[in-house]
Specification:
102 residues, 3 helices
């Protein structure tokens, strides 16, 4: 009868761990990698594991292209504004008059 206490403790701990893992998996939380409790990073999974990964990559690439173009346009506008701010007023007035003459 004395052997039932250790067996009961081991069973309770194992059942608790199994239940905790099941709840984490069901709700999308990261699972334990090993007994030390280290967690796997979401990016560590290989591509294609998650559904919609290809679509997500495509959306991110499209957004990246859009933002790169926007940054380029903003850099051009800033360069023009810097030129206006640093050029002497006489030269700027001359350039405006030259544009009007065309």
């Amino acid at each position: 009868m004395g052997w039932m206490v250790p067996v009961g403790i081991v069973t309770a701990v194992s059942a608790s761990h199994a239940f905790r893992t099941w709840v984490r998996a069901r709700h999308g939380y990261p699972l334990d990698d090993d007994r030390r409790g280290r967690r796997r990073h979401a990016m560590a999974a290989s591509p294609g594991d998650a559904p919609g990964t290809d679509r997500t990559v495509g959306l991110l690439e499209a957004e990246n292209e859009r933002l790169t173009g926007q940054v380029g346009r903003l850099e051009e506008r800033i360069a023009v504004l810097e030129r206006f701010a640093t050029d002497p007023a006489v030269r700027t007035a001359r350039e405006i008059e030259a544009l009007r003459d065309r």
